[in-house]
Write the structure tokens for this entry.
Amino acid sequence: MIDRLVSNIQKTKAPIVVGLDPMLSYIPEPVKAAAFAESGETLEGAANAICRFNKAIVDAVAELVPAVKPQIAMYEQFGVPGLAAFKKTVDYCKAKGLVVIGDVKRGDIGSTSEAYAVGHLGTVTVGSKTFLPFDEDFATVNPYLGSDGVKPFLKVCEANDRGIFVLVKTSNPSSGEFQDRLVDGVPLYEIVGEKVREWGEELLGECGYSRVGAVVGATYPAMGKRLRELMPKTFILVPGYGAQGGKGKDLVHFFNNDGLGAIVNSSRGIIAAWKQEAYAKYGEEGFAEAARAAVLAMKEDIDQALNAG
């Protein structure tokens, strides 16, 4: 799967992942009105609105980007109908040729971790039949229960040609409360980065990168540079661009000299672009076109930064 992600990046020339994190406040009133007319002001109505919104966004940007990243919490908040919308979103994106990174941040041990891995990246057998439950291509994983929580995912990834992105240095302001703490003089995030490199050594794709990736926030470029050195064959998923303050110039050291090695996420900066002053001309009805314009602007920003670097 890492080979397909790299292939998609090379084809689009855009190391960008669109975060499909649809809060109802991001969805224009005409879309919600149509969904509520069909399904009522219910959880089902909210799920209907999400599916309509996501479909329009994906249709507008699918040819421009290699991957999408739906954040499952934005769907879970609407209960079972929301999870159904998550699954429909995954299926639609895959049908459009996009790599799907399930932002699920799972982390447990033993049979629980295995069940999470199977549910999101593997297959489950029911009687004589086998199913792909959620069927993402990658999933985000929390490593802070240690190898017991990650190894079940590695097993499923190897069996099903899937991948994971392990949280190493996250983009949020309080991440340093734990991740920056020194252990024998070494920051904890560096220790986790070294484990990510170790976990991925046996899962290299033909492209030279591992199916075990890392999550490192754009808001910490100096730490990203150090982690790039520690994990040369690890693909880095970079959140924090745009709405959280990350800029193209902050991303240079996340990439390798081959121009690969990182994929940058933007969520509300793209899907809610229509609410920004810069894209106000598109209006509510043009929300998908605004998202497309935001992707093109992000691509240009990253291109300029990498070429300057």
Q: What stands out?
A: The CA atoms of residues 60 and 188 lie 40 Å apart.
